[in-house]
């Protein structure tokens, strides 16, 4: 959460901070990069929409599974090595995805990309905080800005390059990540302080604690709704003649900007005035209503675009508040809680894209949005029924550095 007292120094940072921040922007671009080119990939590689949606599934599933182990690795080999390994893996697999000649080749290489992404995003914030001037608060603001910028630019870049060829966004990402790799090698000279090593089993045991268990259950269903909106809507818009890469890129650029704005500004404003769980119990039903609205307006271009943008506004609030709740619900170390929560949340996102597209193929274009609304209602019920386990999350005093790290990991989904 961006509540820095010394924001005036945010732009006066060492070169190492800017190097990691640049790489962070590119890394977060990967989340929405493929969104505008899904219809083009399906056409050019003769793939069904369900097969094409596996680009999200393999990326998110591998990212989620790897998240359970990244804190164990980074506390042993150091943050800089973990960052560089993650970037190198992304460069290689993004380039291979662009060279693939079949949809299953792209799907497989996206899985490797997900591994690199998990290694990078789990380490980047700690590195920025360790290297930044002006205190942790300024560093977190800078990181949140990078996160929001990446989420917003990803679909736009995917649309612009995808208007040339569906391969171009993959090559573009590989090139930008290679620049980020070189920048970190050259500019990040001092190895950030290495925290105490964590046990390999710690994130799995963490899920058994009541507070984090409730939040993980909420997040897995919430993220299914998140990716119904992000991953299925391009095909719904294509059916209405809005399937060009540049058009979809611009629409989801608006979605990303909306998400970034409410994540950084609206969520803190709300949680300063009411309990976190109250915010969740208000905003989750609103998201379900937006998804039902998309189902009713599935034959309206304007209606769907409005639902995408309004959905982005609500998703930004929920991303931040859900992650804050998960980190404050227990007294577990933040890296352990972050790994456990983020891992489960990414896996929830992996399920939704192919499942919602299959539902659309079987029952009609409105029903994936109905499914999305239903799983968001389930998320609401989980957080409501389990609210007694979240008393600590409502009462906890926020600590800027810890909450910032949590938000960064959570919003990366």
TrEMBL record:
GO cellular component, one term: plasma membrane
A UniProt-annotated Pfam family: MFS_1
Gene3D superfamilies in alphabetical order: MFS general substrate transporter like domains (1.20.1250.20)
Molecular-function GO terms, alphabetical: transmembrane transporter activity
Entries under SUPFAM superfamilies matching the protein: MFS general substrate transporter (SSF103473)
Domain of life: Bacteria
Keyword vocabulary terms for this entry: Membrane, Transmembrane, Transmembrane helix
Entry membrane topology: Multi-pass membrane protein
Location in the cell: Cell membrane
Major subcellular location class: membrane
Stretches assigned to the Major facilitator superfamily (MFS) profile domain: 16-391
Transmembrane stretches, start-end: 16-34, 54-73, 85-107, 113-133, 140-162, 168-188, 209-232, 244-267, 279-297, 303-322, 343-361, 367-385
Entry annotated with the keyword Secreted: no
Protein name: MFS transporter
């Amino acid at each position: 959460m961006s509540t820095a007292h010394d924001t005036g120094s945010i732009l006066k940072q060492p070169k190492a901070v800017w190097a990691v921040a640049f790489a962070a922007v590119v890394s977060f671009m990967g989340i929405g990069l493929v969104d505008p080119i899904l219809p083009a990939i399906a056409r050019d590689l003769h793939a069904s929409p369900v097969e094409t949606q596996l680009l999200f599934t393999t990326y998110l599933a591998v990212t989620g599974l790897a998240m359970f182990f990244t804190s164990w690795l980074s506390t042993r080999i150091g943050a800089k090595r973990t960052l560089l390994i993650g970037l190198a893996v992304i460069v290689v697999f993004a380039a291979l995805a662009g060279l693939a000649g079949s949809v299953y080749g792209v799907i497989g290489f996206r899985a490797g990309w997900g591994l690199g992404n998990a290694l990078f995003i789990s380490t980047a914030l700690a590195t920025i905080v360790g290297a930044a001037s002006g205190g942790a608060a300024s560093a977190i603001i800078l990181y949140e800005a990078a996160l929001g910028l990446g989420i917003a630019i990803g679909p736009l870049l995917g649309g612009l390059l995808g208007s040339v060829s569906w391969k171009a966004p993959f090559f573009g990402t590989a090139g930008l990540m290679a620049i980020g790799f070189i920048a970190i090698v050259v500019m990040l000279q001092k190895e950030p302080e290495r925290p105490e090593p964590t046990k390999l089993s710690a994130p799995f045991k963490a899920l058994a604690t009541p507070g984090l268990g409730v939040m993980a259950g909420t997040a897995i269903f919430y993220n299914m709704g998140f990716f119904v909106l992000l991953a299925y809507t391009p095909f719904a818009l294509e059916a209405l003649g809005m399937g060009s890469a540049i058009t979809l890129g611009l629409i989801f650029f608006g979605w990303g900007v909306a998400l970034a704005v409410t994540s950084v500004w609206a969520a803190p404003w709300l949680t300063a005035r009411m309990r976190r769980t109250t915010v969740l119990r208000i905003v989750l039903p609103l998201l379900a209503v937006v998804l039902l609205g998309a189902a009713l307006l599935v034959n309206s271009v304007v209606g769907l675009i409005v639902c995408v943008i309004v959905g982005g506004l609500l998703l930004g609030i929920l991303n931040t508040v859900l992650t804050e709740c998960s980190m404050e619900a227990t007294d577990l170390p933040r890296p352990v809680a972050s790994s456990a929560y983020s891992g489960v949340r990414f896996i929830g996102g992996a399920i939704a894209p192919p499942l919602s597209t299959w539902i659309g193929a079987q029952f009609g274009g409105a029903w994936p949005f109905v499914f999305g609304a239903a799983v968001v209602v389930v998320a609401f019920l989980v957080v409501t029924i389990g609210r007694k386990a979240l008393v600590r999350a409502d009462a906890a005093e926020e600590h800027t550095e810890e909450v910032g790290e949590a938000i960064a990991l959570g919003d990366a989904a």
